[in-house]
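so the lab meeting is tmrw and i was supposed to have these ready like two days ago... anyway. pasting both below. for each one the top line is the aa sequence and the line under it is the structure tokens. i havent really looked at them closely yet so no promises
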Amino acid sequence: MKSIKNIGIGVGVILVLLIPKFFCQEKKEGSGGKKPNGAGMPMKVKVLVVKEEFVSSDYKVSGTLMANEQVMLSSETQGRVTHLYFQEGKFVSKGELLLKMNDLEYQAQLKKAISNRKLKQENATRNETLLKKEAISQADYDLTLTELAGLDADIDFLKEQIRKTEIRAPFSGTIGLRSISEGAYLTPNSPIASLQDESKLKLEFSVPEKYALKVKNGDDIQFALSGSDEIYHAKVYARDASVSEQTRTVKMRAICSNSSRKLIPGLFANITLQLSGEKQSIMIPTQAMVPVLKGQKVFLVQGDSAIERSIKTGFRSDKQIEVVEGLNAGDSLIVDGIMYMKLGVKVKVSKN
């Protein structure tokens, strides 16, 4: 009985010693299964067999529509508004009277100046006759002419002050919402309403410096509005004089017709720039490229291992990038698991 008890104790001690070892081994095996590649096991990868294809170098950028001409109407002088001649949201023609301020004081001064000028003109005519008869000196006659010229200047000044009490449309366009009412007292630069020429619209966008020289004045571009599939056309007419140091882009503008009045200034536009005609190129997924210090590289499958290949890139789209040097048709390009990839890693091509 005592021997059986001793045997039981021995078995218990052995189990106590073996259980931790068993669970630790199981934990190690479980954790090892989470690695992307088990010890000694090739990594499963997906590959793309590289081939040349005909592609069009279309580059997509964002832009904003702007009115062909736009201005915030404001006053050059101060005064009380006596009449408003425009309606909000309506078309106005160039030179059309939009607003009138009180000018009674200037009108009275102008009437007085015109009356004085008439008197001085008659005096100058008499003095000219007396000068010919040598009844007055040349100095007296010159003084009369100087006074007459001074009155002419006063009349021109008063007419200009009266002109400033009127606001006229500087160009034809649609007038916006007004900020004042009749009876309001305006001061210089007080905003009145916006005026926009929407017969044509400008499309402003920025192009990365590497593509800037490929977009020239006179080039036709296509664009669509956000949330719409309708295609519009515009023609590039101007570019900024230099590259922005902050964004390394060049700002450009195109012009498009808006005879249908479907387009509104301020709308967001998705622009397609055709940088060149159709050509044969090698295009690869952007996620397959790895940026390095001196350029870019990709990983290829050679035999059962991964190798590195330096490449030079060209045109880039949303999901693909053109490879102009470094790849050949038929190369097996690794397109997933790039973050775990390095030279010499054993790989196995996945068929899924």
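ok protien two:
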Amino acid sequence: MRLTDITIRTLKAPKKGVVLYSDDALSGFGVRVSQAGTKSFVLTHGPRRQRETIGRVGIISLSEARTEAKRRLAQYTLGKDKPKAITWNAAKDEYLAEREPELSAHTNRAYRYYLGRTFRYGTTKLTDITPYDLSHSLAKLNHTPVCQRYAYTTIRAFMRWAHRKHYLDRNPMERMQCPHPYVPRERVLSDAELARVWEAAGDDTFGRIVKLLILTGQRRGEVAQLKGSMIGTDTITLPAPLCKNRRSHTFPLGALAWTFLDPEMEADEYFFKGRGKETPFDGWSKCKPKLEERAGVKEWTLHDLRRTFASGLAAQGVSIPVIERLLNHISGSFGGIVGVYQRYDYLPEMRDAIEKWENHISRLVGAE
């Protein structure tokens, strides 16, 4: 097709992966559309059909992108010079556009945040960024160890990608160590603490999310992004792009959990909306401290409810494989060759486990 501003606006996103729409007017030039709907101008050239990103649709215009594509094609065809060393901003934009279809929404937001806020190198050539520059940027987060560790893992993944793309002859992070190695948390809420958190959670949006986290053991980002299309007759199915391990996850719902859901909601409607927005709930930083104060339970995180769920099921006599199925874990019991050939869904066993857990919670909170 001949790309125009109108046709670009009507390009549809694929159900999975990315799709390339080529421009009939300029060989090799086109628009790549990701599963999430992100559109980028790209140029494919050379005997090896090397593809490079020119820029995001909306940030640069079609005419600007086509002019830049012609300029690059002329340089490569005439052999006057090799592609210029890529800048930080250009490499960052290409990396984010390439990884977006592969990563969860939460991880994409984190990558954009740290690459855009912690590491600000602008038009500096990627090859000119030194280990000292990276260390200096990371040092600014010394007062927030958790954020510093996330920033480190983000820039490490980016630099490895740049090295694989041959934008760098040598990875500047090859001898750098994580400033704060990950130490798994061990916090498990007691039955008394769990009951206080439940009582203090209330019936507002955040309270219902917390109660579903207690009852299902799922991740907060997954529960907050529930849509009507994910709710079945007695199960919830989380699509692969939403899950941390990129595998869809179906788990049963108990009677108590059903009281916090509306099976009649629209298929594309977020159940837990942000205030006044058609977006997932995102008021964690404001709501969580208030819940702590009301409950009188200190030094715990929402993710600790997932660990409490798993530990509580084990105490109820539920087997480890069933617990791992409920948590959507693919390591442990389902790692290696088992994960390849073992396809039993464990739904009956998961239903029994959820029933035991809901009975336990009902006794704790007086909901029987």
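from a quick look at the 2nd one: The two ends are 63 Å apart (CA to CA). Residues 139 and 148 are 8 Å apart (CA to CA). will dig more after coffe
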